[in-house]
Structure formats: C-alpha cells, structure tokens
Amino acid sequence: MSLYEASFRVRHECPYREISERNPELTIREWYLDDCQVVEITAPDVPGADVLDRIDDIGTVLHESVDESGLHVVTQSCLCSLEGSIVERFEEHNCLYQPPTIHRQGWEHYTVIAFDEADVRALLQDLEDDREIEVLSKTSIEQEPVPHSMLAPVDRLFEGLTDRQLAALRLALERGYYEQPRRTSLRELAAQTDIARSTYEEHLRKAENKLLTSAGEFLRLVTAQSTGDPLSVEQGRSERPAD
C-alpha cells in the first residue's frame, strides 16, 4: 500500500498567529478534540507578563510550570472559532490530518497523509487560493505501516464510556491493577469507593469492553500489513482434528 505524506506551513489569521509572530521563541502545539482544542505552549525562558496575559486569553489554563527547560503551559478552549477550519478542508480532499498543529514564528505547520497523490495536490491548490502557503516536503511512503499517530484521536477511544466507567478504569490503572504482578485487587479497589464491589466490577468490565471494542478497528489497521503469525494461530487451526 502506497501512502503520500505532505508537510507544509501557512500564514493565516488565527488566535495564535500574533502571539507566535511577536514571540518567535515560543512553540505552540495544538490538538483538536470533539468539543475543544488543547494547546501546549513551551518556551526556553519565561516570557514577559504581557505574553502570559495573552496566553490566559487563549483559554482555560490546565497546567503551568517552569523548570530548567523553560515554560510549559497547557490550555483548553472551545472549538467555536474552528468553524470552516483548515482541518475540515483536509477531510474534503480525503487527506488525514496528523496532529498536532505547530505554530511557530507566525506560521502554522501541518502534516497530512493521503492514499492518492492527486488528493494531496488538490488540497494544496485549494489552500493556495486564499492563504500564503509553503510546501516543506511531499513524500511517497512505500510499504510502510500506517502511522499510529493518524489512526486514533484519543477522544474516539473513549466514546460511549460513562463518567463512572472512566473513573473505575482510572482508579484501577493508577492503583496497579493492570501491572504484572497486580498490586491490588477488585476488593481493595472497591473499598476505596462508596459503591459495592459488584457495582465497581460492573463499571470496570464495561469500561474495558468498550475501550477494547473502540481500539479494535485501529488494532486491525496496525496489524493489517503483518504477514507473520506470532501466536501460530493458523498452525493451531490446522492441527485440530476435523469434526
């Protein structure tokens, strides 16, 4: 299977152009989720108060820290400003967006992958009609596995899980239930909540089932090009006696 990857940058009026253009030391990474966008801002040094105020205006600050590597800020904001966005145009041309978008020095950097080179060309021509664009690379990817980063937006993996199912799954993960050997039991996990063990186990099993079902389609894509049989499944079938 051949894939076509294109990396390009555009100049476009958006909430992050001005801040990245005026502060070239900043790197802004942007991810789009179902109902919001999450932005990570990093800088080698702590910027001035005016920049920090502008960051506060972008959205709700979820995390902020300063260490020897510089400033790290994570914000969340709504998607109302993304109506008719460039990401929607990727979809119109059958191109798969690979997050994150990287904003640096007034430019937005994108990478897309398509199964047809003509779709990549059509997308780039479409974008050239209304914005400044610079193509950084176009590459044919021969016989490579589908990149994991384009397979599963995180929010899709958790579709359909209730708040209690998510909470049960997180508690089990954080307490070492899935480690080998296990560091806790279902009884001990349930004892940390205000619900019965049977109820906690029901939430956990439903969460596991939904998560694995959602991940299944991506697992099949990841393994679609594998020609091996590491578990000797086919050999086991051939060795079973016929009915």
TrEMBL record:
Pfam families: HTH_10, HVO_A0563_N. Keywords: Transcription, Transcription regulation. Residues 5-150 form the HVO-A0563 N-terminal domain. The keyword Transcription applies. Residues 161-212 form the HTH bat-type domain. It comes from the Archaea. This is Transcriptional regulator, contains HTH domain.
